[in-house]
Each structure stands twice: as C-alpha cells, then as structure tokens.
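Protocol step 4 of 5: obtain the predicted structure for the target chain.
Materials: sequence only (see below). No template structures provided, no constraints applied. The aim of this step is simply to have a reference model before the mutagenesis design in step 5. Sequence pasted as it appears in the construct record:
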Amino acid sequence: ETAQTIIQELILTQKDFVIIEPLKEKIDKLSASVKGLFIHDDPTEDNVLISAGIKKAKGIFLSLPTDEANLFITITARSLNPHIRIVTKGIDVKSHSKIIKAGSDAVVSPTFIGGMRMVSEMIRPAVVTFLDMMLRERKKVLRVEEVVVKKGASLDGKTLEEARIGEKTGALLVAIQKGGGKDYDFNPQKETAIQEKDVLILIASPESAKKVEKFSGGG
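Step 4 output (structure tokens):
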C-alpha cells in the first residue's frame, strides 16, 4: 500500500511525520507494523490539518483512494500553507493536470511507475538491482538526497576542491542544480564554485546528508 511504503521510507531516512487516516482499521494495520503519530480523523477538514501541524510542515503526501479527495485536500493544503510541498497520488491520468492546477507540486501515478519499472527490469536490470539494493538495505541506508545551499553558509563561495564534501561528510556529490534552476552540472569539476541557492545532488546516508545540510546552512 502506498501509505505504508511512504511511512517506511520516512522512518529509514529519519524524517518526522504525522499520519491522518479516516479509517480505524487502516490505522490499526499501519500502527501494528510501523511507529509514528497517527490521527484518526477526516483529512478533508481544515481543523484536522491544522491540528496535525500543516502550517509549519515542509510537505504533505496525499494518497487517498480517489482523485476527487486528493484534489480537494490539495486546494485546502495550499490555502493553509502557500509554501508547503504537495505530492499527490494520481489515479486517472486525465486528473493530473487538474491536480497540478489546484496547487500540487507533483502528481505520481502508481500505474505509470509500475510500467516503467517493468521496462527497466527488461532493458537495464543491473541498474534496477543497484537501486533496489539502496532502497531495501536496512543496516546501511543510502539514498539520492538533495541539499540547498543558503546564503552565508560554510559552502557558499567555495570551490568543490576547497569544500571537500566527500572527505568531510562521506557523501558522494553527483550533480549540482545551479541556482535551483533547470540546468544541472553532472559530475562537476573540482574548480566548480558552490553558490547560494545551488542544489547539491548526493548519494548519502541520512547521517551524511545532515552533515552536508549543516555546511550548507541548514543545520
């Protein structure tokens, strides 16, 4: 189930979260397998989202069983927190554009992802095995992470050679999204300068990612 997968990943990557679920039987099932803060209530109600902390939350996942419910909560969440990142499950591809227009930052189709996974298993099996190993490993958790460089941070203005990110944190820098825009510098050279608003794309453990965040002004 989508929600259980999301919860397990948030736990592995050491993220704080709250789950709102209207069905008691689903809460019982989820709480039996994972630890977390569960709210048994209607997520379409403003006061429920507010009590869950939506006004201070960085993001919200919407994975209700219908596009209509997810669309409604998208509108509500965006009105309560204009800066929150909203990731929504989209069931009917025809609804995706409406959900985006309503305020969602991303719409994820389980059917599309499943189809892409099957193709990848056929034409690039070694890559799939590698990614699966990253996602399923419990003792040494590694993920592709992103960290935004803030103004005045330790990394701001330094070259990669001066920053020594790998040596200091254990993280592997894969690319830099310059200025948070659309352009990526893949496998950046040592003379590349790190600047405010750059997004560092890394392969890192949760602990290594936190070290990079500290040097980037987020810790």
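Step 4 remarks: The radius of gyration is 19 Å. The longest helix spans residues 67-80.
Proceed to step 5.
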